[in-house]
Amino acid sequence: MKKINAKKFFSSILRSAMLVFSIIFLTSFLSGENLLKIKAAFGYGGGHGGPSYSPIIQNTPMGLRVVDVSAINYPMTLAANQEGFYTREIKGDGRIDLFVSKKTVSQKVTFDVAKTGVNSFNVIANGNTGDVVLNNEIIISYYTALPANVSRLHVYHFNENTNNWEQVSKVNFNTDADRVTIYTTKIGRFAVSALDLNQVRVFKSDTFVKDNRGRIYRITSSGKHHIRTISEFKSYRVKKLIKVDELELEDYPNV
Fold first, then answer.
1. Contact call for residues 40 and 48 (beta carbons, < 8 A)
2. What is the mean pLDDT of residues 98-123?
3. Ordered domains of the chain (ranges, CATH)
4. Pick from 139, 169, 182, 154: which is nearest to 247 by CA?
5. Lowest-pLDDT range of 80-84, 91-95, 106-110
6. 81, 105 in Cβ contact below 8 A?
7. pLDDT at residue 178, rounded to an integer
8. Local structure of 47: helix, strand or coil
9. What's the confidence (pLDDT) of residue 50?
10. For 189, which DSSP code?
11. pTM (2 decimals)?
């Protein structure tokens, strides 16, 4: 029986263990935000200089997969036969990812996302011809600080035709990842709120309100006026100040 060299044997085991550890570490590190930052730094996947139109591996809501177009902090343009993954980093409020599968659009469409307020944003889709219709669901991943209890939170979409907020039914809240995942065929304004936005209040003229950021407004027939000084607030001799969520004031123009 051949004698085993103990030193070489244990050295081989140590090398194997280090290799396994390295693979696990790299797999963990090269995912999520770290992968996005590395690709942006080297100009891959869009970065800040424009989208990538070469197939690239992305960590999408569907897992790691090769997408046709990838964009970071830059509008993403897709053709009908292309799959895309878009990321918009929101200063002071995490980020928003957008995954669009193949044949979701029937024309060339440019996607972008803009923040519109506290826990609200606008998914923009501009097509070459006419209105954009989504044939498949897009997946929106909104990363933001979530409370431990999300039972009262809902996601709403603003219907431009009826001027009403409508609750989105296909939603997942992940408190461990601070992520809200939305599955939808809609574009436009979305909001995450504990309020029932289906029942948003309509305020009478000359009503005074205070939003969740502490800003005070005077509601008039023309819109909302931001009261910025104590002296101005006192001049109105306000008898009642109504607490509101800023989402309730979105449709009142600033005057």
1. yes
2. 90
3. 46-198 (2.60.220), 201-249 (no CATH)
4. 154
5. 91-95
6. no
7. 93
8. coil
9. 61
10. E
11. 0.66
